Amino acid sequence: MLTFETLKEQAASGEVDTVLVCLVDMQGRLMGKRFHVQNFLDSAYEETHCCNYLLATDLEMATPDGYKATSWEAGYGDYVMKPDLSTLRPMPWLEGTVMVLSDVLDHHTHEPVPHSPRQILQAQIARAEAMGLTPMMATELEFFLFDRTFDEIRAGDFRDLTPISGYNEDYHILQTSKEEHVMRPIRNHLYAAGIPVENTKGEAEAGQEELNIRYSDALACADNHTIAKHATKEIAHFHGHAASFLPKWHHDRVGSASHVHLSLWRDGNPEFYDADAPHGLSELGRQFCAGMIKYAPDYTFFLAPYVNSYKRFMKGTFAPTKTVWSVDNRTAGFRMCGEGTKGVRMECRIGGSDLNPYLAQAALLAAGLKGIEEKLELAPPTAGDLYEDSDAREIPRTLRDAVETLRASTMLREAMGDWAVDHYTRCADWEQEEFDRVVTDWEIARGFEKA
Fold it and tell me: Which family does it belong to (predicted)?
């Protein structure tokens, strides 16, 4: 991490000439501007501006109607990007470049924009802090590496995709050694950027990787996740490969997840831990986990935001299909880790690799804190193959289903506000509308002659 004073010194010596000033959009991507370092030091460190459509576009940067926040009728005005100088850091894989994340403010009032992903998470963190609690989280980033670059794959219409390896490389040292020309610089550059990388490993499919980052407070966790995902794509590209976070790129291949580990701390001590409680999980921890489980259908959209996200939920793939918990069981939607230790926590396994970490973490926090407020009882843990448990409640199986549970969620409307929920409901509706109007290759091949 950098201080503002250190940046001045690096600018004076010529070590740094560019500052990336970024916000996080609805899809969890970095958007922003590249400043000459001197302009940033002179004025842009205080604020800069961007079009308010950046929080009302889809993956293709289309500008759908139906948003109250911005529209053609309102003329698409500006937001203020307010750099959070505590996030200032080098980007070692880009020559002479540092970056800073920004909070998004209303241009006229300078109040936080309520549907900004970073603000939505900050609001839930503040809610926890009002209870004397500090949310601690970690995310796992799974992705696929492919033989060619994004540009080469796009030129081939995204067909004939070839992963970087030819076989399942889960924990496989020989195969992952072949990929060190990409993965080693990812680890080292991210660490040099102030992100506490723990490790990388092969995942349970050909060409599939996992990046693990040390746990931290919730906002730092989301910041680390977002920067790491962005960096992974850039670094892989510079080495001739595409890194894809699409959850399900082929129907015969295992999907990619982003598991979220959660616990609450108070005054530097883990509040989930109680040595005398079953599994070492305190009453507060049980209430929080019960809330996450009870309200899982309400917030599934924030864990699985696209049509493709739901293709991942299939039995026998290590992706969950049920909203139940179990002790160290990877077939459940929620897995207790660190049983009986101070590291006891709950891992939510529902989220896909395409989630926006700010929104996902905020939704999980909102549900867990509601569980504490309602003093919910945590059901006994499940066991065995949860894919075959007909009594366990299902995760919403399509984006269409998840949109309806989001729209009807009293819990999320109370926690995030109607404005934010309606904004992301429109986001989800648009995604479904765009898919519904497309004729897929599968439909043509299946029915062209036989229908």
Answer: Belongs to the glutamine synthetase family.
